[in-house]
Structure prediction request, 157 residues.
Amino acid sequence: MSATPAIHFLRQQGVTFTEHEYRYEERGGTAVSSRELGVDEHAVIKTLIMEDERKQPLIVLMHGDREVSTKNLARQAGRKSVAPCAPDVAQKHTGYLVGGTSPFGTRKPMPVFLERTIADLDRIYINGGRRGFLISLTPADLIRALSPALVDAAMSQ
Prediction:
């Protein structure tokens, strides 16, 4: 398969990563990818495209087994409100299909917010830019590549 914009971006940044393909299931989310790859769902990171009250997009990176408190995120991000984007709007901002959204190599630059505890993991698994395709890397490499703001916005599912 051809390299995605995410893979091109990571190679340009000199980031070391490994590629992991799995059988994608519609609406399966991180539960399916963690099961298929045999890794803890807590280490599988969701890439969520949200927007603030002015319809400005932002990327939120969250543990697969947690949900985002949009209220806490908005407060920490200095926004009045934050809500998920509609799938077609998210695709327009990122250039990726929902279910294959990567925070790397997006169509337009957006601020990135990373759940603080992700930085404590040894290795993370995150979408590589298409459905059924994750890459693994260290949180330090992700932080170096994206310069995210660290937030405490996780809620248990």
Observations:
- Residues 42 and 62 are 9 Å apart (CA to CA).
- The domain at 5-156 is CATH 3.90.960.10 (YbaK protein).
